[in-house]
Design brief:
It comes from Streptomyces calvus. The structure is a single chain. The strands form seven sheets. Strands 3-7-1-14-11-12-13 form a seven-stranded mixed β-sheet. The chain is of the alpha+beta class and 771 residues long. The chain starts with a helix and ends in a 12-residue tail after the last strand. It has three domains: 175 residues, Aldehyde oxidase/xanthine dehydrogenase, a/b hammerhead (Aldehyde Oxidoreductase, domain 3); 333 residues, Aldehyde oxidase/xanthine dehydrogenase, molybdopterin binding domain (Aldehyde Oxidoreductase, domain 4, 2-Layer Sandwich), CATH 3.30.365.10; 129 residues, Aldehyde Oxidoreductase, domain 4 (2-Layer Sandwich), CATH 3.30.365.10. β4 and β5 form a beta hairpin. Helices cover 26% and strands 25% of the residues.
C-alpha cells in the first residue's frame, strides 16, 4: 500500500471513529488538584521563593526568657553596622501596638515585659541575611528575669501576667439535674500535650512599599483580610493602603502565618522604602506561631447498671500560653463537646482558659474537641471495663442521633449517624496477626531491626468517636463573596478563599463546571482587592465560599438561559446544561453553551451567609453552632509491653460527609487528618520546661513520617446530606484528627490494661510489669 493510500485510509478511519468522551468534570468527580502540576514541577510560588529589585533582608530578635521585665533596649550597635538599613522596636510602631486573631492582646514588639520564650523584641533590615541576623544579635537588651508561671493551675493564684489578668474565659455549663447519680461511677485525670501545626514550609514573606505610602504584603496567609486589617492598624494606615497578596500556602493545619513577623516585615519596608523579605528558620517558626492548647481534664461519669449514661461531670483547663488568641473559641468547643457524641441527660462542666508564660496557643484542627475526646473516650473504656461490657457495645448504647440534645441545650438538627459509623468500623475485618518469624521482624513495634521480642508484643483494639463543629461559633458572622464571569467559553472565579490544601480551588472549578457546563474554569489568585471570604479553617470555604460560588454560578446560568427560554416560550427550569450543551426537556432546543453565549460576557456576584448562631449564656446554654460532623475510628495496635513501644497497625475510619464532592480529595483529607492524630497520640509534644521551648526543630520534635503512617481504611462514608449546607456537604479534615488519638489510646489500653491518661503516650505508660 502506498503512503498516500495509507494516509487516506487513516483519515477515513479517524472520521468514522466516535468522538472520545469528554473528560469527566463537575461535582462528585476526582478532578485533579488545581495546583498539582505546579507543585510537581517545582514552579509553585511559595513565599520563600519571592524576589524583588533592591531587596533587603529582615531578622527578628526574640526573647531568650519566658518571663522578664525589660529594663532597657539599646539598638546603637546594630544601627551602626555596615549594611544595616533600619532597626525597629516597640517605639517605632505608629499605630495599634497589639495584635491577635481572636483577642488583640499580643504586642507587636515587647516593650515593658516579656511573657514567653521567643517573643519579638526588635527587627532589623539589612542588605544581606547574615548581616541582618548579626545586627539583630547586636541589639542589647537588659532583662530583669522573673520566675515564669508555667503550670496553668497556678495561674489562678499567681500575680497577673497581663494587664487583662490571667483568666481569659470561664464557662460553667449546667444541664439537667445536679443531684442525678448513677449506679456505676468512674473517674479520671487526663493531660494532653502541646502539638505544633508543623507546616511543611516555615513562615516567609515579602513586604513592598507603595508610592502612596502604603505597603503590599506577600504572605502565605489563610485570612488575608484579617491580616490586612491587623497590619493597617499597626502601621497607622487606612486598610485600603495595605494590600495582602496570598502566595502559595505550603499546607495549613492552623491559621498558618505568624503575625509577629508579618508586622515587623511591613514596618521595615515602610521605614526603608525598600522591599524587605524574611524567611524564618524552623526554630523561629516553632517559637513564633501558636500551638494546640495543652489541657488538663478531670472527669466523672455516672451510668446505670446497663451502662447508659446518667451524668457527666468535668473540669477542663486550657493552657492558653502568654496571650489569648483564639482560646475563647477553643474553650467553647471543649465545653460544648465535653460529653462527646453521646446522649447525656445531665452534664455539669467547668471550663477555664488561662494565661501562663508558656508559648501561645491558638487554632489547630479540632481545637478543644480533640482534647476532650481523648478524655471522654478513656472514660467510656473505664466504664465498659467496670461493667464487663464490650467497649463498642457500651458506646452503641449511648450514641446520639439526629434530634438529640447537646449539653448546651442545642438540638442536633444535622445528620448524626453515629451508630451507623461505629457499627461500620466495629464490623470491618481485623487485620491478620503478624507471624513470629525473623523475616517479619519489621512488624514489631520497634520497627526494622527493633530491640523488641515477639513474645512481648500484645495486640489491642480500641475505638474513638469524635465530633466537631463547622464554621465559626457563638454569633460569628460567617460570610463569603464570590464572582463568576464567563466569556469566550471560559469561566473565571474571583473569591478570596485561600487554597490551603483543603481543595477549594478545585472545588470552585467543579461547582462552575457542574452549574454552567463549561470545562475551562480559572480561579484568580487571592488578594485583598477582592471582597473578603474569611479565614480558611473549620471547613468554612467548602461551605461558605463554595456556597457563594454556587450562587454566583446559578445567577450566570439564569442570565444565559433566560433569552433561550423566552424565545422558545418555556421557563429556565425546563432547560438543562450537560457537557457544554443546552437542551430542553422535550428535545426541541439543543445548542451549545458557546453558541448561546454568542460572544457576550456574563457575570454575577453573590454572597453566602449561614444561619446565625448565639453565644453560650452564663450557664453554657445556647445554639452556638451552625453544624456538626462526626467520625468513628477503630484502631489496632501492637504494643511491646517490655519496652513500651507502640506500632499502629491499622485504623478503620467511618465518617459522615454529607456528600462526596471530590472522592480522591476527600480521601486524602481524611487520611491526612488521621495521620496528624496519630502524631498527637504517640510522638508530638513540644516540650517547654520552665517555659523554655526545648529542641525547636524537626529533630527534637517528632513528626510521624511515611514509615510511621499505619494502614488507613475508609470503610464507610455516610452521604446523608445536611439540608442547610451548600451541596449538603460537611467538612472532613478536622474530625479524624479529633477521633484518632482517642482510638489509639483506647487500643493501647486494650493491649496493656494500663489506664493511658496522657497524650502523647509515653513508653512507661505502655509497659506492663510482670507481663
Amino acid at each position: 500500500m502506498s503512503n498516500e493510500a495509507a494516509t487516506a485510509q487513516a483519515a477515513q478511519a479517524a472520521e468514522a471513529a466516535p468522538e472520545p468522551d469528554p473528560a469527566p468534570h463537575g461535582l462528585g468527580v476526582s478532578l485533579p488538584a488545581a495546583d498539582a502540576r505546579a507543585k510537581t514541577e517545582g514552579t509553585f510560588p511559595y513565599a520563600a521563593d519571592l524576589w524583588a529589585e533592591g531587596l533587603l533582608w529582615a531578622a527578628v530578635l526574640r526573647s531568650p526568657h519566658p518571663h522578664a521585665r525589660i529594663v532597657s533596649i539599646d539598638t546603637t550597635h546594630a544601627r551602626e553596622m555596615p549594611g544595616v538599613r533600619a532597626v525597629v522596636t516597640h517605639e517605632d510602631v505608629p499605630g495599634t501596638p497589639v495584635l491577635g486573631r481572636g483577642k488583640a492582646d499580643r504586642p507587636v514588639f515587647a516593650s515593658e515585659m516579656v511573657r514567653h520564650h521567643g517573643e519579638p523584641i526588635a527587627a532589623v533590615a539589612a542588605d544581606h541575611p547574615d548581616t541582618a541576623r548579626m545586627a539583630a544579635a547586636a541589639v542589647i537588651v537588659e532583662y530583669e528575669v522573673l520566675d515564669p508561671v508555667t503550670d496553668p493551675e497556678q495561674a489562678f493564684e499567681a500575680e497577673p501576667l497581663h494587664p487583662d489578668g490571667n483568666l481569659i474565659r470561664h464557662i460553667p455549663l449546667r444541664h439537667g439535674d445536679p443531684e442525678a447519680a448513677g449506679d456505676v461511677i468512674v473517674e479520671g485525670l487526663y493531660r494532653i500535650g502541646r502539638q505544633d501545626p508543623a507546616p511543611i514550609g516555615a513562615e516567609a514573606g515579602l513586604a513592598v512599599p507603595r508610592p502612596d505610602g502604603g505597603v503590599e504584603l506577600y504572605l502565605a496567609s489563610t485570612d488575608p483580610h484579617g491580616d490586612r486589617d491587623t497590619a493597617a492598624a499597626a502601621f497607622g494606615l487606612e486598610p485600603e493602603r495595605v494590600k495582602v497578596v496570598v502566595t502559595g500556602v505550603p499546607g495549613a493545619t492552623a491559621d498558618r502565618e505568624d503575625q509577629s513577623f508579618q508586622l515587623p516585615l511591613g514596618l521595615l519596608a515602610l521605614r526603608t522604602g525598600c522591599p524587605v523579605k524574611l524567611a524564618a528558620t524552623r526554630e523561629e517558626s516553632f517559637l513564633g506561631h501558636t500551638h494546640r492548647h495543652p489541657t488538663l481534664l478531670r472527669y466523672r461519669h455516672h451510668a446505670d447498671a446497663e451502662g447508659r449514661l446518667v451524668k457527666v461531670e468535668a473540669q477542663i483547663l486550657l493552657d492558653a500560653g502568654a496571650y489569648a488568641d483564639t482560646s475563647s473559641d477553643a474553650l467553647a468547643a471543649a465545653v460544648a463537646f465535653a460529653c462527646g457524641p453521646y446522649v447525656v441527660p445531665n452534664a455539669f462542666i467547668e471550663g477555664w482558659a488561662v494565661r501562663t508564660n508558656n508559648p501561645p496557643s491558638g487554632h489547630v484542627r479540632g481545637e478543644g474537641a480533640m482534647q476532650v475526646c481523648a478524655a471522654y473516650e478513656a472514660q467510656m473504656d473505664k466504664l465498659a471495663k467496670k461493667l464487663g461490657v464490650d467497649p463498642a457495645e457500651l458506646r452503641l448504647r449511648n450514641v446520639m442521633a439526629t434530634g438529640d440534645v447537646l449539653p448546651t441545650g442545642q438540638t442536633v438538627t444535622c445528620p448524626a449517624p453515629v451508630a451507623e459509623l461505629l457499627e461500620a468500623v466495629r464490623d470491618f475485618p481485623l487485620p491478620p496477626l503478624p507471624k513470629d518469624t525473623p523475616e517479619d521482624e519489621w512488624l514489631l513495634p520497634g520497627g526494622p531491626e527493633g530491640a523488641g521480642e515477639p513474645g512481648a508484643v500484645r495486640r489491642g483494639v480500641g475505638y474513638g468517636l469524635g465530633m466537631v463543629h463547622m464554621l465559626g461559633a457563638e454569633g460569628a458572622d460567617e460570610v463569603s463573596t464570590a464572582t463568576v464571569r464567563v466569556q469566550g467559553g471560559v469561566a473565571t472565579v474571583l473569591c478570596a478563599a485561600v487554597e490551603t490544601g483543603q481543595g477549594f480551588s478545585t472545588l470552585a472549578r467543579q461547582i462552575v463546571q457542574e452549574t454552567l457546563g463549561i470545562d475551562e474554569v480559572h480561579v484568580v489568585p487571592v488578594d485583598t482587592d477582592q471582597p473578603p471570604a474569611g479565614a480558611g479553617c473549620r471547613g468554612r470555604h467548602t461551605w461558605v465560599s463554595g456556597g457563594a460560588v454556587e450562587r454566583a454560578a446559578k445567577m450566570v446560568r439564569t442570565q444565559l438561559l433566560q433569552p433561550l427560554a423566552h424565545k422558545f416560550g418555556m421557563s429556565t427550569e425546563l432547560l438543562q446544561i450537560t457537557d457544554g450543551k443546552i437542551t430542553s426537556y422535550d428535545g426541541v432546543l439543543s445548542t451549545t453553551v458557546t453558541e448561546a453565549m454568542d460572544g457576550k460576557e456574563l457575570w454575577a456576584t453573590a454572597q453566602c451567609r449561614p444561619h446565625p448562631t448565639e453565644p453560650l449564656d452564663e450557664s453554657g446554654q445556647g445554639d452556638a453552632f451552625v453544624g456538626m460532623a462526626f467520625c468513628a475510628i477503630r484502631a489496632v495496635v501492637d504494643v511491646d509491653i517490655e519496652l513500651g513501644s507502640v506500632r499502629v497497625v491499622e485504623l478503620a475510619v467511618a465518617q459522615d460527609v454529607g456528600r462526596v464532592l471530590n472522592p480522591a480529595q476527600l480521601a486524602a483529607r481524611i487520611e491526612a487528618g488521621v495521620t496528624q492524630g496519630v502524631g498527637a497520640a504517640l510522638t508530638e509534644n513540644l516540650r517547654t520546661p520552665r517555659g523554655l521551648v526545648r529542641h525547636p526543630d524537626l529533630t527534637g520534635y517528632s513528626l510521624p513520617t511515611a514509615l510511621d503512617a499505619p494502614d488507613i481504611h475508609i470503610v464507610k462514608l455516610v452521604e446523608e446530606r445536611d439540608v442547610v449546607a451548600p451541596f449538603g456537604a460537611k467538612a472532613v479534615s478536622a474530625v479524624p484528627v479529633v477521633a484518632s488519638p482517642a482510638a489509639v489510646a483506647s487500643a493501647v489500653r486494650s493491649a496493656t490494661g494500663r489506664p493511658v491518661n496522657r497524650l502523647p503516650i509515653r513508653p512507661q505508660a505502655a509497659v506492663v510489669t510482670g507481663g
